[in-house]
Amino acid sequence: MHLHQHQPEITYLKNYTKPAFSVESLNLRFDLGEEHTLVTAKSVMHRNKDAQDADLVLDGHQLKLISVVLNGEKLTEKNYQRSDETLRISNVPDKFILEIVTEIKPQENTALCGLYKANNIYCTQCEAEGFRRITYFFDRPDVLTSFTTTITADKKRYPVLLSNGNLIAEENLADGRHLVTWEDPFKKPCYLFALVAGDLDCLEDHFVTKSGRKVTLQIFVDKGNLDKSQHGMDCIKKAMAWDEQAYGREYDLDIFMVVAINDFNMGAMENKGLNIFNAKYILANSKVATDLDYQNVLRVVGHEYFHNWSGNRVTCRDWFQLSLKEGLTIFREQGFMEDMTSEAVARIEEVRYLRGRQFIEDAGPFAHSVRPESYVAIDNFYTATIYNKGSEVIRMQRTLLGKEKFRQAMDLYFARFDGQAVTIEDFVKCMEEVSGRDFTQLRRWYSQAGTPTLTIQYHYDIAQHKFTMTVEQYCSATPGQPEKLPFHMPLAMGLLDSKGKNMPLQLSNQNKPIDGDTFVLEIREPKHIFEFVNVKEQPVPAFLRGFSAPVKLKVNYSDKELLFLLQYETDGYARWDAGQQLACRIMLQMIKDHQAKKPLAFDKQYGDALKQVLHDQQIDDAFKAELLILPSENYISEMLEEIDVDAVHHVHDFVSKELAQYLKDELYKIYHQQNQVTEYKVDTASMAARRLKNICLGYLMQLPDEKSQTECLKQFKDANNMTDKLSALAGIVNKIWPEREKAINEFYEEWKHDSLVMDKWLSLQATSEVPGVLSQVKSLVQHPAFNIKNPNKVYALIGGFTVNNLAYFHDASGAGYEFLADQVITLDNLNPQVAARMIEPLTRWKRYDKIRQNLMRKQLERILQIKGLSKNVYELVTKSLV
């Protein structure tokens, strides 16, 4: 194996040391120029008590140092030492004023990290380690200071100059430039610093807090995008009101600003008072945005706003504690979405994402705990494990404490640690202190990687009216963790009688039945046996209601019991999961049959169950839509010991087509009913109706008849909203027929002026099931609608093909692997964060057959030989090749 020319340093949690210096204040001045930008950073510092390092060591990356002045005296190169990543100044006094001037070139910064310029807008992204690209400073989250930021720029080109906090000064300068000064009254780490400069439109509104304070709300967008800003503004106000009601958290500044940026690595960034958003997650109107876009705006706006307390006011001590802010804020975001939409459907979507992303992470070469022990590139740890599994661990604590005690613990957490950088341990201690519980064992979720499997067996004794269940937990080895200790988790369950009603639940060691229909069992040991008494008839058990723990569940259900749960279960998640389990069971058997060259037979029992769902007037449209969606090819693949992409795709396609034929009458009926609605509304009920209608259309387009094609073309031409337009185009793009290219070109000509709509256009073609899709993707890389420097374009086209088009990406020729490696190599020179995100499909090479393994490994080794490979990509490639 070719080794990296300069192996990057590994950072370990065990080596954490407190900062040697504190920064009382930081005064920044940015002189924005077309050739370069001068940054003057003037800080007041003092040495901390018991400091281990006598020298002042500051972080810096790719900076041109102009000058260093210490207490008014200009230093020479004899007074300091520089490396690629640090500036070291020896013999500094215990208290001093330091002024550093650096020169940077934002217009050449394609990494979109630090201060960069894209589309004539200056913008920052400092999390996790971007501030060191601006000036020399302590680029770590446990150094909090007061920021004052002055910006000067050409007034005509950049009339809008923004930073954190409150605007305290404005001035027109003699040379056509202007100056503004922002002051943030709250101390913060440098990763929360933000600056934006450009010629932008602004939508302004206000929100009155529960204590009566009037807060100015502003959304800044590119010229011409104001008509896409109102939904984002409405979402901000919903989030502010919800956080006051749900957590008692009130906004703390006089102004809250959001800026929409087209070129942005992340979804959005929670910089104090100045949130910077990927335009994809803030701009929306019915012409350009789908219902999913509307939901995503609500979700991401909520997430970034909630960070004001869970991340900004209380931040993390070091990056190993990242889930302290991200897991907690995902948890808060999920509660918000459950309240704003349908609780059951929101929970299903959360679980689908977790199982489709985080479970795969846990089963791969990058499996890591919610609090990792080490990293090479911290950017690689913005993962589903940190975010979504971290959220599930908090949800388990709420389940074990109850909502009232949990809220008390959250109040204590915010009150005790306001203005501090803290650890996950500090958070859990608040839970323990309020409840009087010991969560020592529960903390293993933070230190142990992997997804535990719960195996449940049960037996009903008709003579004694006793229901006995045995629960065993097991977690497979993960890299660096061969042995796992038992986890502590809640298992929510219920028993249904023959009519589908919840039965009273009473454990044998209790005197009376519990209150309510759901019982929460606490699982701590490798094996438990629970006995329920006074069970009057043979029950059907429902396990893991609400997805009460992030585990895989193995239960010896019969098909009949799964069908019963699909029909009668009262918990939305568990009911949906019964259908998913049944579909998986059917498809996994079909995969075996296909591999054995046996003819495939459609399971009519499953078809009848879905037919019953479609006829059931008691099921709302949103939930009905979820029940109709088959488990994805990715999800099915993960259940196989060796992934057979061809068999998985063949079976998935077969079941889809058979279901379409079996349910044809019901699908047409629902489609026509829903399609009669002509007025476009953005509310939960209308969105649900459109989703159900378009899922029906997706199935109908699997039929070989002209009727469905005619319906689809009509919807494409007549649609008065992007949801219906795009759903119809998806059906058209997945068929080989004369209308395909015509529709693709028509859509392009109509929407080529809108970058975000073009991302959807690219993605649809990348995920098409039409043969020759790789050639199409390669041609689109050269298309004017694509720009490899724009992360959204990369995620839509390259990510769409490699992640969501399994059969064609994993073509036995290996052409898909070579294509991805080519793109990763190109991207690594431009934007290592995006390159690292793209490489993941190659890194799971061990899950496939020997031929594909060799082809994938060859491309990974080719990437590793590239001179100057980023530490982001290097870390992922080397870990996967072990």
Describe the protein's topology.
Elements: E1 11-12, E2 21-31, E3 37-47, E4 56-59, E5 64-70, E6 73-74, E7 80-82, E8 86-89, E9 95-104, E10 114-118, E11 121-125, E12 146-154, E13 160-163, E14 166-172, E15 177-183, E16 195-198, E17 200-208, E18 214-222, H1 230-247, E19 255-261, E20 268-269, E21 274-278, H2 291-306, E22 314-316, H3 322-340, H4 343-362, E23 374-375, H5 384-401, H6 403-417, E24 420-422, H7 424-435, H8 444-447, E25 453-461, E26 466-474, E27 489-496, E28 519-523, E29 527-532, E30 540-543, E31 552-555, H9 559-568, H10 572-595, H11 604-615, H12 621-628, H13 633-637, H14 645-662, H15 664-675, H16 684-700, H17 706-718, H18 722-733, H19 739-751, H20 755-766, H21 773-781, H22 791-804, H23 806-809, H24 815-830, H25 832-838, H26 840-843, H27 850-864, H28 871-881
Parallel strand pairs: 2-12, 18-19, 19-21, 22-24, 25-31
Antiparallel strand pairs: 1-23, 2-3, 3-9, 4-8, 5-6, 5-9, 7-8, 10-11, 11-16, 12-15, 13-16, 14-15, 17-18, 20-21, 25-26, 26-29, 27-28, 27-30
